Amino acid sequence: MKADIFRIQKDYLPDGAGLYTVVFFNGCPLRCIWCSHPMPDSHPSEIEWDSRDCLYCHLCERNCPTGSLVFKDHVLTYHPDTCSLCRTCENSCPSRMLHFRDKLFTFAEARSRILAEAHLYQKGGGIFLSGVSTHEQAAFASDLFKTCREKGIRTFFETTGFLRQLDFDRVLRYSDHVMLDLKHYNDAKHVRYTGVSNVTILANLDTAVASGVDTAVRISVIPGINDSVFDAMSFGTLLKDHGVQQVFLCDFDTVSLEKFGDYFTLYHNPDYPAESVSENTLLRYADKLTRFGIAVRMPQVNAPFAERL
């Protein structure tokens, strides 16, 4: 079993108090207009395609400007030598399940890196899996979490929520904590800004809440997208209806810079202004959410990454 992983990052707690390890999976089914879409370190040699997800619309093949994708006998073939990495194929895919592969880790490799300092997890911290978005990644993540649970290591599932229900349930089964990243409360605007509906995301949120697993929603406040008082009140109404009691509130740049590092600066979408919301805006936002009985955390920028998820 292999999985496409963007990076594995470790954050040590002060004075040997524990260890957080964050595994960032590569690829995302959302196409957020503000996203930096970082590129791999090197030219990918493979593209992740699954016949179970494919609608066979051939849009990726037809829209590829270099002819690097070819369907033959209902199988998609990728020619990396001619690929320009424009990602038109990814953006054309209506099922959002077509991704370039970067670094493939075997289960044994990932397990070895994660558990290399297993004794530190017993003191505090845990394992975060971020960005699980495909069937294969869900299977990989589930097995990793199962191993962690057997060893008494806390598990944190950070997700967009845009996963098939069976895949979401598979990872949720071995999760101690869930952080679901909700971009917008309005379905039409969610489609407009991210390319996908929030219906599946909210259904998976309901599943997480109903399971009894500690569940929180992260709201990344984005200028001009969801940063108004009305947006805050609308989020509050929606989350209360779905039984959410915890929210992590942050500036979207904080999450992007931590996950992508220098890639974010290098590939930040030029069509979207690189600005941050003010601290006053976040405080005002938090005040509105608390009126719905929701506990709000606003992690500090200089805090360990795990505290900002």
Characterise the protein shown here.
- Helix content is 36%, strand content 22%.
- It has 309 residues and is α/β, with parallel strands linked by helices.
- It folds into two domains: 2-39 and 102-308, Alpha-Beta Barrel (TIM Barrel), CATH 3.20.20; 47-100, Alpha-Beta Plaits (2-Layer Sandwich).
- The chain has a nine-stranded mixed β-sheet with strand order 7-1-2-8-9-10-11-12-13. Strands 3-6 form a two-stranded antiparallel sheet. The protein has a two-stranded antiparallel ribbon with strand order 4-5.
- The chain is globular and about 55 Å long.
What is the element layout, followed by pairings?
Layout: E1 2-12, E2 19-25, E3 47-48, H1 59-63, E4 69-72, E5 75-78, H2 88-92, E6 99-100, E7 103-106, H3 107-114, H4 118-121, E8 125-130, H5 135-150, E9 155-159, H6 165-172, E10 177-181, H7 187-194, H8 199-211, E11 214-221, H9 229-241, E12 246-251, H10 252-260, H11 262-267, H12 279-290, E13 295-297, H13 305-308
Parallel strand pairs: 2-8, 8-9, 9-10, 10-11, 11-12, 12-13
Antiparallel strand pairs: 1-2, 1-7, 3-6, 4-5
Name the features.
309 residues, alpha/beta, TIM Barrel, Alpha-Beta Plaits, 2 domains, 9-stranded mixed beta sheet, two-stranded antiparallel sheet
Q: How many separate domains?
A: 2
Return the CATH topology of the largest domain: TIM Barrel
Strand order of the largest sheet: 7-1-2-8-9-10-11-12-13
Radius of gyration: 19 Å
CATH class descriptor name of the largest domain: Alpha Beta
Number of strands: 13
Strand content: 15-25%
- N-to-C terminal Cα separation, in Å? 27 Å
Structural class comes to: alpha/beta
